[in-house]
Amino acid sequence: MVVAKVSYEERRRQRLEENRRRMEELNLPQLSQALRNFPSPKPSPMKRVKPRSIQKQVVVVRRSSRVANMPAPVFKEVVIDRVAIPRRIYRQRDLSNRVYATEEARQEALEKAEQLQLSLESEFPTFIKSMLQSHVSGGFWLGLPVHFSKKNLPKKDEVITLIDEDVNEYPTIYLPRKTGLSGGWKGFAVAHNLADGDALVFQLIRRTAFKVYIIRVNSPAEDKQL
């Protein structure tokens, strides 16, 4: 056991001596000392970041002339669970001046319109429309007969001209997906002072033009002069 221990210590000493000799041959001790004496690099100063300045601009929200000219909305407080919550109240349209035709007067105007329709040239398609309040006030939307529209009118949005009995022309926008007249119909209705119960005869004289005959509700009994 003693011989083995001495042999181990001798081999360990020989390895250390051999490692030292190799280090001296490679000049490692001198390099290590030189690195210790070499001044360490100065840390680079941190770049100062200039804080961004955020400019606040006042943006004026533009409102359309139609909305800008409308009266300001009225708000009313509504109490819910003892908490007052402002609630917008929309001004209702004044309908007090509306005049509604009686069923007898409406039917009489329709009968006169049917007589007029029979006297028109049959080569031009025709239909009769009895006026309602939605046609002549408020919404100003005129729905046309679906079957007539699909058979005779354009399949895409088109300008359709209404020609009254004085040969005055009124362009309107026809919407086939809704089978009705939108923009421009209000101008025609207002210009001719149409009322609830009036009966109108539409005669398609061209692909995009109607001759329109108006039978006034409660009008005199004499026949309509063409």
Keywords:
9 strands, 7 helices, two-stranded antiparallel sheet, 226 residues, 7-stranded mixed sheet, alpha+beta, At1g16640 B3 domain, 23% strand
Oligomer: single chain
Low-confidence regions: 59-68, 78-96
How large a portion of the residues is in β-strands, by DSSP E?
15-25%
CATH class placement of the domain at 103-215: Mainly Beta
Q: Rg to the nearest angstrom?
A: 48 Å
Series of secondary-structure elements, N-terminal to C-terminal? HHHEEHEHEHEEEHEE
- Rounded to the nearest angstrom, the distance between the terminal CA atoms is 144 Å
Mean pLDDT: 76
Summed up, the helix count is 7
Structural class determined from secondary elements: alpha+beta
Please name the CATH architecture of the domain at 103-215.
Beta Barrel
Helix content: 25-40%
The CATH topology of the domain at 103-215 corresponds to At1g16640 B3 domain
The major sheet is characterized as:
7 strands, mixed
**Number of E strands:** 9
Q: In one word, what is the shape?
A: rod-shaped
CATH superfamily of the domain at 103-215: DNA-binding pseudobarrel domain
Strand order of the largest sheet: 3-8-9-5-6-7-4
Structure at a glance:
The chain has 226 residues and is an alpha+beta fold.
Can you characterise this structure?
The protein has 226 residues and is of the alpha+beta class. The protein has a domain at 103-215: At1g16640 B3 domain (Beta Barrel), CATH 2.40.330.10. Helices cover 32% and strands 23% of the residues. It is built from seven helices and nine strands. It has helices spanning 2-25, 28-37, 65-68, 103-119, 133-136, 146-152, 185-191, and strands at residues 74-80, 83-89, 126-130, 142-143, 158-163, 169-175, 180-181, 199-206, 209-215. It has a seven-stranded mixed β-sheet, with helices on both faces. It has a two-stranded antiparallel ribbon with strand order 1-2. Residues 59-68 and 78-96 have low confidence and may be disordered.
